Amino acid sequence: MKKVAFHTLGCKLNFAETSTIGRQFVDRGFEVVDVDDPFDVFILNTCSVTERADRECRQLIRRALRHSPDAYVVVVGCYAQLQPEKIASIDGVDLVVGTKEKFRIFDYAGDFIKHSTPHVFVSCIDDVTAFDPAYSADVGGRTRAFLKVQDGCDYHCAFCTIPLARGESRSQPIDAVLQQASLLAAHGYKELVLSGVNVGDYGKKIGTTLFELMKALEQVRDIQRIRISSIEPNLLTREMVDFMLSSGKFCNHFHIPLQSGNDVILKRMRRRYLTGDYRNLIEYIKERDSAACIGADIIVGFPGETDTLFEETHRFLVDLPLSYLHVFTYSERSNTPAIVFNGIVEPKIRQQRSEMLRRLGYIKRHAFYSSFIGKDLPVLFESKVHHRKISGLTANYIRVEVPSQTQLVNEIHDVFIEEVNGDVCRGVLQRETFGSESEESAVMTVGLE
Ligand code: SF4
Fold first, then answer.
1. How far is the CA of 214 from the centre of ligand 1 (A)?
2. Can you give the residue ranges of every domain in the chain?
3. Over the stretch 89-109, which tens digit does the pLDDT of each residue have?
4. Distances in Å between the alpha carbon of 192 and those of 208, 317, 433?
5. pTM of the predicted structure, to 2 decimals
C-alpha cells in the first residue's frame, strides 16, 4: 500500500480541498500518513496571501524530502496557479497543478514515478465556471465539518491575489449543498461551517442567494449548529442577521472582515463599504444579541496608511464592540493594483502596527470571554484531550475547556464558566449533564448513548 502525506497552507477552504483530494487517494488504496512518517507521495496545498508562501513552499519540500528522499512531490493551490515556474524550479518538485486541475492529480501523475524534470499543468483561470465540491472534517472527532459552498471572487480588492488564483465567483447549487449536509449529518457531524472565498456572494450566478441557502440548511435534520466562516459587511443584510439570531441552528458568531478603520484606506483598498456602514452593522448585531461574537480581519501597513490614518483605525477599533481581531501585515503581491501605489509603509512600522493591533485584539477577546464568567454556555466538545482536559466551542465561538478524561466528544453540554486563562475559558460541567450520578458513571452513560 503506497503512503501519501499532505500539508496545507492558508485558509479553511484549502483544508476542505486537501481533505477531498485525500479521499481520492484513500479510494485508490493509498494510506494517508503524517508528514513525520515515511511516505511515497507528498502533496503540498499552497496559499498566496502573503509573500512568505515562496519561502514556506521551499522549506516544506526540503523537509518532506529529508524524511522521504524518494517521495513524489506534488504542489497544488493558489501559489501553484500564480507562480508555477517558480515552484517547478524548486529541487525535488515532480508535479505542479493549477486551480482547474487540482482534483485531477491522478490524471497527471501517472504511477507517481519521479522524473528528471517536473511536469506542470496549470491552465488559465479566466474561464473557470465549474464548481469543485469539497469538505473537510476534524479527524476522528466528527464534530465540525467545513463545507465548501462557494469559490472564487469577483471583487478585486486592491491588495488581493485570490481572484487571480481562484477565478470568478461560483457556487454549489442548493440541492447539492443540502445533499452533502445530510450526508455529513448522517456521519455524525454536529456542526457545519459554510466555507468559500466570498461566502456572502453565494448564489449570484445560479439565481439564488446565501439567505435562501441558509433557510434551506436550517431544515437539515441532525445538524445542530451552522456557522458562516466569514462574510463581507456589504453582503450581510439586517434580514440575515435577524434570521441567524432567531434561528435554532445558526451560530451567533459573525466573522466580518474590516481591513481598515479609515475611509481613505478603505477606498484605496477598493472595499465596498465605509467605516460608518461597518459600525452600523456591528451595533445592529450587538443591540439584538449582546452575547454575539464578532471578529474582524484587519490589514496594517497598506500603502498610504500614515501614522495619523493608522491612529484613526486604532481608535475606531477601540470603540467597536468586537470580540477578536485577525491582524495581517500588508505584503506586496505581484499583479495586484496596490503593488504600484505610493505611500509605502516601512516594514518595521508595519510590524509595530501589527503588534499594537494584536495586543488590542487580545484585550478585546479577554474582555469578551470574561463577560461570561459565572454563566452557563453550551459547548460542543471536540476530540482532543490534553492534560486531562477536554475542550470545545460554544456557538458564539468561545473555546472552553473542562477537567475531564472522559468521552464527551461530539456532545453538547452546558458548562459553568469560572475563569479565563489566555485564549480559553475554563469551567465545570453543569450537574444536569450527570443527573444525580457520580461524574464517572454518568460519563459512561453519555459515552454509550
Ligand atoms: S472580497 Fe476582496 S479580499 Fe476577499 S477574496 Fe474577494 S478580492 Fe480578496
1. 22
2. 3-121, 126-251, 254-371, 376-448
3. 998 999 999 999 999 999 999
4. 20, 29, 24
5. 0.91
